[in-house]
Amino acid sequence: MTSSVTTPRATAWLVAITLIVAACSGGGGLKRGKDGHVTAAGDLSVFDLQAGDCVVPSTETKSELEKVRVVACKDAHTQEVFAVEQYDHGDTYPGDQALAQFADGICLQRYQDYIGVAYQDSKLFSTYLLPSARSWNEGKDHKITCIVTTMGDQLTASVKDSKQ
User: Fold this and answer.
1) Do the domain assignments include residue 130?
2) 3-state secondary structure (DSSP) of residue 23
3) Domain residue limits at 68
4) For the segment 7-16, what is each residue's pLDDT rounded down to a tens digit?
5) Residue 66 neighbours by CB under 8 Å, 6+ apart
6) Rounded to an integer, what distance in angstroms lies between the CA atom of residue 119 and that of residue 38?
7) Residue 41 in domain
């Protein structure tokens, strides 16, 4: 997967990173309640992220990684997954540009429904994870993961319906 910025205002502070995932494994102490929300922090495969997962990004810049740190949304975090969408426009890897164009559109469409305010009126930012050519071709990954993020300010609650 490749992390890519969806808007010009976020370009200055987010750097694209490639996330190549070798396996679809969860675990690392992570626990979910019956409602699917994380109740105990842990490491989670990027393939297993779902809307509502609150993420603490690594402070270490890596070009490849398999997992992200997911916490209960009441715990300090700076990112939250707000949508996971399947790219179903063919089986051949479409390339970064086509995936980014699709992600720009689909994430902006899903943003207001999740946050409760249009992106241009929000104080939050949006980014996304894209499938890498490798994960795509291995047949593991055709998903776009839309993520809402801050400029480093800590959140201690979900941003769902927050109108931020």
Assistant:
1) yes
2) coil
3) 2-149
4) 433 332 232 2
5) 19, 20, 21, 22, 23, 25, 45, 46
6) 26
7) yes
